[in-house]
Amino acid sequence: MKNTLFFKIFVGHVLPIVLSIGMLFLVTINLFRNFYYDSLTTQMQNIGYGLKLDIYPYLEKKNFNELDAYLKEYGKAIQTRITVVDKNGRVLADSDEDTARMEDHRFRPEIMRAFAGEIGSSRRFSRTIKTGMFYIGLPIERGGEVTEVLRLSLYVDQINSLLAVLRKNITTIITGVLLLALILAFILSRNMTKPVTELRNASQQIAKGDFDTKVFIRNKGELRTLGISFNSMTERIKDLFSQLSRNKEELNSILGSMEEGLIAIDKDSKIRVFNDSIMNFLGQEELAGKYYWEVIREASFNRLIKKCQESKTATKEEIALNDRFFLCSANDISRQNEIVVTFHDITEVKIVEKIKRDFVVNVSHELRTPLTSIKGFVETLEERAVDDDQRNYLSIIKRNTDRLVNIVQDLLLLSELEDQNKTHEMEEIDLVFLLRNVEKLILPELEKKGLKFSINIKGDLPKIEADAFQLEQVFINLLDNAVKYTDEGKIDIDVKESGGCVEVRISDTGVGITEEDLPRIFERFYVTDKARSRRQGGTGLGLSIVKHILLLHDGDIAVTSTEGKGTTVTVSLPVNHP
After folding, report:
1. What is the rounded average pLDDT of the residues 536-559?
2. Mean pLDDT, residues 37-46
3. Phi, psi of 546, rounded to the nearest 5 degrees
4. Is 426-574 a domain of CATH 3.30.565.10?
């Protein structure tokens, strides 16, 4: 009850009224008391001034007994005690008591002030008659000197009786006013809180989902406007809730129909949204509220999430779950600080890739032996050839056999690079030393074509972590291509450190690559100049091998070229390989 709005408003109205009326009561009583005492003082002074004229003759003749008798009679008539005191404090006459038994009055406050020539007044307990009294002392002057004091006094009980009647009347009036104020405060508080109560009850109904609830406020003014706005808001909420429900049903339908698995991970690493497909993939029925690492216990998946959280960009990773393979794509939703991960089932693709890889490996192994035999017999026949035509035919056979052998070797190397179970020999490598060794290997071809060659080192280069044999294969293939497709001019290598990577730029002045061919140069068996490649024994697998090796080293390769002017290949390798 104390916490209700009605109680607070009612008390807020009543409390100031009660305090105001209480203060008014106290002030009024005090004013009336002071006014009454002031009136009594004036009245007693007037009586005293008249009485002084009557008692002068008695004082002049010092007929104090007659004066005493006169005061007793006069005091009874006006119901006032009258006393005459001389300078020594002796009571000369008193209307109520025997003067012989009365004590010295010299030090009474009203007597002292009267002898000082002023009108004295005092309220105190009288030891003579044992009751409270109100005193007025008037000086009596004879010969220009105060010789006696005329004191008039009233019983305080009489005054209090009169004030009690006055207090009772004032209390009755104030009580009536207070009751009226309480009734008005009650009505006003109820009128103010009733619309608020209706709004509260309506809000509770809306919170329970009853959007058809309406409020009808009869009060005019802001509360009625509030009620109208509340009804409008309810209609709007109803429309929005219906729309959200439709959107949710539509989203659930879409998620349910997706073949790909989907989960949404919130900022606390808990799964918030998921679909049926991911439950089927994981073999679990309930995922909501679980930490993602409780559900998917794969280190590669943890790396994917961490990488996406740190980079705030879309990230992909292949993971294996329950003997199936998935391409996971993680996207960061920065506004909600969530990550949405989709699971594309690539198990069949992986099976096909494995079949293809096994086929290539098996075929390559099977082809290696007969090709080696063919090459051996061709070389034997070359020694026994008797004329130029035979040697020419044998040379063609040998060149094509070598090309097949190279293709088989490159295919085996690609299969080996694609084998995820194979470990790589990572070590610290001095890249400049490695490039100098490669230079020695291609030097005969450079001299044969008369090409200029240079290696330019910018600054002190840090060592990098890499597989030395594989990295050597990268630069051998790139420089071999540069030499093959450059008939005159030069080949330059520029090496520098840039952004935590070592950057190697190989530039040539060869035939260049057309814009149509440039996007496809890393495809297997794709060659830009088929006649030249076939003539020089190219397999079309060199750049594919380069791309695979750089991916294994977390590196990158970029190619720019202008047809007829040359090609520039830029290789970036991280200093610290993850």
Report:
1. 72
2. 80
3. -60, -45
4. yes
In three-state secondary structure terms, 89 is coil
Q: Are strands 490-498 and 452-457 parallel, antiparallel or unpaired?
A: parallel
Q: Which residue has the higher pLDDT, 244 or 197?
A: 244
- Comparing 358 with 440, the larger pLDDT belongs to 440
Q: What is the pLDDT of residue 510?
A: 83
Alpha helices in 450-529 (DSSP H): 468-484
Query: Considering the entire predicted model, what is its pTM?
Result: 0.44
Dihedral in degrees, nearest 10, Cα atoms 162, 164, 166, 167 = 160
Characterise 207 by phi-psi region: left (phi > 0), alpha (psi -120 to 50), beta (else). alpha
Q: Which amino acid is at 479?
A: L
**CATH for the 5-162 domain, from 3.40.50.150, 3.30.450.20, 1.50.10.140, 3.50.30.20:** 3.30.450.20
pLDDT band of 532, cuts 50, 70, 90: very low
pLDDT at 368 over 70: no
Question: Which H or E run contains 437?
Answer: helix 431-449
Task: Identify the three-state secondary structure at position 529.
Answer: coil
Q: Residue 492: beta bridge partners?
A: 454, 507
Q: At 284, is the secondary structure helix, strand, or coil?
A: coil
Residue 289, phi then psi, degrees to nearest 5 = 85, -5
- The average pLDDT across 62-80 equals 85
Residue 531, pLDDT score: 45
Largest CA distance in the chain: 195
Q: Where are the alpha helices (DSSP H) in 466-558?
A: 468-484, 530-535, 542-552
- Measure the CA–CA gap between 99 and 330, rounded to whole angstroms: 118
CA dihedral 286, 289, 290, 291 (to 10 degrees): 150
**pLDDT for 203-217, tens place per residue?**
777 777 777 777 766
Q: For residue 107, which phi and psi values (nearest 5 degrees)?
A: -100, 15
Does the fold of domain 426-574 match that of domain 258-345? no
Contact 406, 557 (CB under 8 A): no
